[in-house]
User: What shape does this take?
Amino acid sequence: MAIITVGEYPLNMMDSVDKFHGNQLVYVGWDNHRLINSAMTFPLPPEMPFGALVSEVMPSCYKDHPDFEKVNFEDGSVLWSLNGESFTPDFSKSLIENGVDHKSLIRFDTPNLKGLNGVGM
Amino acid sequence: MTMNTQKRKKRLNMKDKYKHMTRLGWDTTYQDMDDVFPKDKFEGIVIHDWEGWEDPFRMTMDSYWKYQGEKDKKLYAIIDAFAQNNGQKNITDARYVSALKLFLTGVSPLEYQAHRGFADIARNFRGDGPRVACQMQAIDELRHVQTQVHTLSHYNKYFNGFSEFAHWHDRVWYLSVPKSFFDDARTAGPFEFMIAIGFSFEYVLTNLLFVPFMSGAAFNGDMATVTFGFSAQSDEARHMTLGLQAIKFLLEQDPANVPIVQGWIDKWTWRGYKVLGLVSMMMDYMLPESPQSWKEAWELYFEENTIALFKDLERYGITVPDCAATVSAEKDHLSHQIWMTFYTHAAAAPFHTWLPDEKKMDWLSEKYPDTFDKYYRPVYEHWGKLEKEGKRYYSEMLPQLCQTCQIPMLYTEVEAGKPTQIAHRQTKFNSERFHFCSDHCKDIFENEPEKYVQSWLPVHQIFQGNCGGSTLPEVLKWYKVEFGQDNLDYVGSPDQKMWKEWKGEE
Amino acid sequence: MSLEIKSVEIKPKRETFGHVARRIGEGKLASRYEEATYDLQPTANFHYKPLANPEFELYDVKKTGVVMEDWYKFMDPRQYHYASYVTARAKQQEVAEQNFVFVEKRNMLDFMPEEIKDEILEYVLPLRHYEWGANMNNLQLVSEGYGAALCNAFMFHAEDRLGNAQYITRIGLLLSENEAHVLDTGKDKWLNDSSWQGLRKAMEDTFVLKDWFELHIAQNIVFDAFIHPLYFNLYEQELNKRGGSSQSMMTEFITVWNEECGRWLDMTVKVAIDESDENKELITKWCEKYIDIAYDAVLPLAQKILSNPVECVDEVKGQLIARLNKSGLSL
Amino acid sequence: MSKVFLALQAIEESRAIIEAIIKDNPDVEVENQTAMTKVSAEGKLVINAPTVSDLIGREWDPQELQLVLITLAGNVDEDYDHFTIYWDN
Assistant: This one.
């Protein structure tokens, strides 16, 4: 249902990618580890290799959860999803080559790690 | 001449007299009525007879001035007395003051917006009855923001976190939640504003905002806040009857209005509930002595009172907002999840947070038997360990925000039985991705995408470089938040140090 | 009881809010008026454009041709914030109430000649619609204006106009002993009687003005400066000589109110034109335009109620021009 | 039937009003909370001005309720001699 206005309403995309000085926004969320309050926002170069996201960016956020040091990103125990679809990232390829475009949401699940009190916190 | 030479004159009853005192308008002929009232038809609301309006209260200006003058005389006498005998010393604990900081920075600016909004619709409705009722609410709302500023001005002299409330409301990240809520209502048409604020916020949710704050103040020895709250709330009683009358009027005018009004009720009960998340945190965590839990307040003021209201509206085809089920499901988790977010992001907010002590945690266990000990006590115990090791946890991350309500994506899939899994919803508009905390927020976006793509999302604005820089110190400087004074934990804050001196502790 | 605090001296950390201190000077005590007015209106980062007026932001300085570097120069000399405003009006309404009770209990109206009663019902009562129009315009000023200094004062002014309309209605009901049809007759005069049409058209033309400061000049500065002195001063002087003195008792609220607003109204003109020559030019143009419109609109009404209408309207116009020139215009 | 309620400030001016409510509304419930008295009833609650006037020894105008009222739930019907809240479902 289109917006109902008096006269023509301007279209103003406040967060288009050109406004981020060469970066794009990427959100990263860890499923069932609610101690980390929410998915977090990262301004990243689209060409950044996916592996760098995992090794350099994510630790600054998830080191605050005791489970993080037990996560093994190599043995396939981590289940990834991109914008709601499950996917298997190629660590050597860039974000954009992995389909991670502006304002994409990456979620990772670690079913073997149950968080605080084993209830997903 | 004897004293009572009163001739028996015809006496007008109050209803008729009030009509003569308010039906003063006319249909213009030198200018087209649609040019004089350009805003009250575009929303699709059909009004056949503006005189179908039943005046919700019948107070002419002379008695308004008389009674409101008396109310303010009493109110300011108490504010003065509170200041003179340093009433701020007699509150239960200085942690309580952070609830007042939240109120001045997050709620008082909404009163100002309501003042401007009700003046706007008082000018733009064609009917005389609603125009008089709305303009009297407009001046009432100005009273509320001004009395709140005056009451809290005394606290501002001693405690941090009040001084830049106007500057903060336009900029600080979590204050974009109440600000965008009211900007949304203020930029909508006059009828949507009336349903959004006059009905959903003033009627359905006002008791959930005001009464908990005021009884919280009473329980914690803050007589100044109790007084202004109760005094302001008596004006709110008029506003509630106005909101109720407005919705009935619209629903009676034309069946075509019913689906439009239902859509607004659904949207604004949800958007109002989102803003009230701040109240849930205040009630459950920020009051040293808590009269009532959020869950109890919700059950009393929404489930009990509002259901009675919706029974009243059933005959018009109006149903309880569909989000009510979500809110009920979330009532065992809401305040805890929000407090966790504010505890971890306290470096970037101009009020204090802290870990609940044993006494509070036991109270929370009793009030939330199914959820507190299982999900949240372990979190506070984990952070408690860090605090003891001198590593009080602050997150340096900037959260993903919901595009509609602008709250960090901290809400979980409680209704779907997965209370620790953060709820993610997504859509695309104009080939750009947008994210939401719930189906309800997503629906609101998809109904009016051109409106919500304009949202000034604080996190994105920081990354665009519009908030003074990219580092926390730069952003705090732009916010005018004094690091180590306005923000961070209550423990170790200047507020705490002052409080201990007052109490002769240490 | 709280612990007995030894000799701890409770010294405030600051005297007032940051934005107020930056305006009045650090360390200074702020008045309640200053704290209740300065910077109350949001100024930045509005989230959405209005659906009914997307050309402008929610609060937008571009809604008027008047340009100000600081819209908080318009501080109200009466220092009205809600509490001081309702306290003042509560006192004034108490006096008005006593006047009405005195007129009624002492059956003063039995001594008022019938033709004066008819004259009031025909040529004063319709003013309740004029006051309603002024209420509409001042609500528009609250809605579209910029800065709480002006908009708070417009809010009080709007409610004063509703009060005026209600007092005029009360006079009509008292003169007619609650025969409400006199109100309909009055409305018919407002809508159809030729002597009222100039004023009604002048009012309706203001209802579609786009620039709110122009609206303020038209309604509050010019039209009221013609209507109120004519009706509630010059006309009542004549009525007193003709046995109609009860009228001035019943309209005392309006007379006192009108005098009290003068200080505030003159300030709004002075501050705007002191700011720049462009502002002065714009406001001069508006004043000239609306003085002519008001003159033509009011003369036919003066001819109905005054023995020397032209002199009276000229006198009132002269007083207005003198006031405006005192504020800095050169009309 | 749904419940109507009135919350009044727990101060001197409310005392007579509450007494009048109890007198004229047999099944009313009175709850004293902190700084506030809550008065509720099924479906309807009436404050009759004459009853209050007798209790306080002067003419009581229902609009004076504004000075002690905190909040209410229900539709309002008001005239010179009464202040009533009701649900009509």
Observations:
- The CA atoms of residues 16 and 102 of chain A lie 8 Å apart.
